[in-house]
Design brief:
heterodimer; A: 112 residues; mainly beta; six-stranded mixed sheet; 11 strands; globular; B: 114 residues; seven-stranded mixed sheet; four-stranded antiparallel sheet; 4% helix; 51% strand
């Protein structure tokens, strides 16, 4: 079993819909959680990060962490065609331990 | 500010050939790493470095060597290329507090071994 599980999709939704992307994990040591966005033929770029449990909002994006369930989510409101990309979750154990463990990524397409 | 620069962007190798993938960053990041990305496998860590002169193995190190003689550069060497090394390779860097700032990735090197 992988430490981080992520539904690979693909996921297609109409423009303006709310998108929910999810990851589960098994390592209780993970304390900080990130979402990366990767456009086709590009490197991943950091989209959101959260520390421990709770929600964090940034514009149309909300990251949610439930450590008790070992489950994290990324919500995209009012989705746009420019949101079409692969979204990767990533997790780390503690500050000073630089290694991150990535999910396999979910390919998202927003249909105009 | 260029960020993380990877060269070359594309490469075709014959089985058994060796080559070096270059990675340079200009952000004074302590931490640098190499990942390979394959369909259905996600990003897998090959080697990483927490500072000049210090390197360590990741999840899939076999067939690859690294060195870190300066803070800025972290080259990845393929010793004897095999078709199983066909992949997209990403270099990433971060401050030691990567939990706060995350990684900065390069744009990738697409390698095909025939």
């Amino acid at each position: 079993q992988k430490e981080v599980e992520q539904d690979p999709g693909p996921l297609s939704v109409p423009e303006g819909a709310i998108v929910s992307l999810n990851c589960t994990y098994s390592n209780s040591a993970f304390q900080y959680f990130m979402w990366y966005r990767q456009y086709s033929r590009k490197g991943p770029e950091l989209l959101m990060y959260t520390y421990s449990s709770g929600n964090k909002e940034d514009g149309r994006f909300t990251a949610q962490v439930d450590k008790s369930s070992k489950y994290i989510s990324l919500f995209i409101r009012d989705s746009q065609p420019s949101d079409s990309a692969t979204y990767l979750c990533a997790m780390g154990a503690n500050f000073g331990n630089e290694k991150l463990t990535f999910g396999t990524g979910t390919r998202l397409t927003i249909i105009p | 500010n260029a960020g993380v620069t990877q060269t070359p962007k594309f490469q075709v190798l014959k089985t058994g050939q060796s080559m070096t993938l270059q990675c340079a960053q200009d952000m004074n990041h302590e931490y640098m790493s190499w990942y390979r990305q394959d369909p259905g496998m996600g990003l897998r860590l090959i080697h990483y470095s927490v500072g000049a002169g210090i390197t360590d193995q990741g999840e899939v190190p076999n067939g690859y060597n690294v060195s870190r003689s300066t803070t800025e550069d972290f080259p990845l060497r393929l010793l004897s290329a095999a078709p199983s090394q066909t992949s997209v390779y990403f270099c990433a860097s971060s401050y030691r507090t990567s939990g706060l700032y995350g990684y900065t990735f390069g744009s990738g090197t697409r390698l095909t071994v025939v």
